[in-house]
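Appendix C reproduces, verbatim, an entry submitted by the partner laboratory led by Prof. M.T., so that reviewers can inspect both the input and the predicted structure.
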Amino acid sequence: MPRPEPDQSSPIPRATVRRGWGPLMLAGLVCALSLLVTWLAWSGARRDTAADLAAQFDYRARDLATATVRRMAVYEQVLRGAQGFMRGSAEVDRQDFADYFRLQNLQQHFPGIEALGIAAIVAPAQLAAHEAAVRAQGFPGYHVHPEGARPLLSSITHIEPFTGRNLRAFGYDMYSEPVRRSAMAAARDSGRAALSGKVVLVQEGSNPQAGVLMYLPVYREGMPTATPDERRAAIVAWVYAPFRMNDLMRGVGGADADDLEVQIYDGARAVPDALLFDSQGATTWRTPRLRHTVQADISGRRWTLAIASSPAFEARLDTDRPRVIAGTGIGLAFLLALVVWLLAGARRRAVHLARAMTLELRQSYERIEAEQARMHVILQNAYDAFVALDASGRITDWNARAATLFGWSAQEAIGQDAGALLLPPEARVPGTEGFAQFRASDGEPIVPGQPAELRARQRDGATLPVEIVVALLPAEVGKGASAFVRDLRPRKAAEERERLRQARLDEARTALARSQKLEAVGKLTGGVAHDFNNILHIISANVQLMLKAGDTGNGSGEKRLHGILAAVERGAKLASQLLAFARRQPLHPSVVHIDQLLDRMDSLLHRAAGESVDIARSGADGEALWPALVDPNQLENVLLNLVINARDAMDGRGKVTIRLENAGLEAVAADPGIVPGDYVLVAVADTGQGMPPEVMERAFEPFFTTKPEGKGTGLGLSMAHGFVKQSGGHIRLASVPGAGTTVSIYLPRCRDETGVAPPA
């Protein structure tokens, strides 16, 4: 939109020019609004500084409570070390205990521990003997105090350092005082450390402090401690440590201890009688700005920490920033009012320019927003996943396809490192180096003109092949990149399907060529066998006529004619086998129950196989075998030939299995001759040497044999192939070298058991 020139009249209709008080009133209004904004900013700055101070105080208060709990946990570990030193006995050598205390150097490393001592249990009946034994060790003034009859006595028999105020505790019966007794009983029954309530230590003099004691039980070595009763029976002493609260808390606050006013109460309520520690020494008239109450559980005892801010801490409140904001705002308010007053005379032109600029800016924003919305819609509906990266390799844009492909939503992915999120661990370092090389080469691809293929990682850890195209993308700082990622699984699946289709097509072509080859050989063999059979008939007829006429000349001539007849019969049999392969032999099909046929052939098959060959039969359990419509004589010949072949393949020793089943066959692309339907399966399997693939390719060819010369004609499998095909069935050969051979014959099921053969 064109902007008006400075000397151009106002485009606002019926606009009036204000004179007199108008500019001054406008300047005053602007000044008031500016002062209001300044006050709001000043108030916000004060609230922010107060919130910062409160956050610091809250952190310091919680840190103090945590430090106190940690410090007491450390002291508990010190007691556990002394417990281990005692090894389940209260009879500890004093010098050894003193050396242990000195080597631990507890007063330097663990400030706050007043002493480390052992409170041994003394039976009332043994009190005199106990006091005499201790006095004999060089302590003539030792006695258990306070005096009086009690059911259970204890005595502080060891305490280090054994000097100064600690000498007052020597021989003191802590079990006689209720607060101490409660903690000692809790430690004894639970087997864990127990902290006493508020007490005044025996060591205190004229200016006593509040104190507490921590106890840890010592059980007699070798005695059971699984139940409270067993622990009460096994207790021999307590190892304990007294604490003066002022000394204990002196080092907990650290260098900034003066920032907080701390009061510690024994129990869950902050009552004056339970006050253990007060950092100020006495309650002051001042009301702290910040307060915080924290409860902490220490060795089975609850403490309440009332923490308040000290004047030194509150002095840290930042007042400079609100002052600067107030001063700057006031100055800017008056300066802005002055500028408005000076420019009020040119209001129409200023309003015109402002409106023109506003309209132009709005239109520019609308164009940018429309373009952004258009790009967002395009990217969200793109087929490929879109990922944008900044200069550090972190994700800045993530479309819906990327969320679907990788499993992370846009909220989860944006801000993450792309290499750590999308690349498998072994590819992250090369991926990071490749991205750096891409940025250094100003976006030149690693493989010019080609997208890159790599493996990406999904949310569940699985990897998938993807194709990625990366382009350089200017970022706010440095150079980023935009990438379109395409899932290659559909393409690779299509390629795999095409490969499998081509493989199946090649198999079908091979099977078709093999079938055509066998068909051609069959036609040639059938024609030759048919003509050869006719010639044999002529020879046979003439020889028989000569024998009937007696025109043999002598006995040797008759013998030769009989030899000719025998040769003619062998030739006729050979021609019959060739006709069977060529599917031109005369068949006489009838309804045959193959399992019954095998029952009749059982003895014949065993004689043909020999005594060293085991013949077994198997079939579907509980299922009646379907009948088949075949020539039973030819089927018997086929089964006999298959058993003889199996015997020869096993060198006359092994096992032949004949399996009978009902089978349903579907169309198979690798064998176009298979007609879908119901069949009766007859499978003959042996345990012989098997066939290599090159032998299986030619197994059904006539006269092909691997047997030595004179051991076979090579027509057994070819005749079986021709018979099965002529009967409307299928034959398959399966063999693994060294694992035997299986010949499977599928004969069509006969649904009409009347015995009427279907038309040829």
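The longest strand covers residues 463-474. Additional entries are available on request from the coordinating office.
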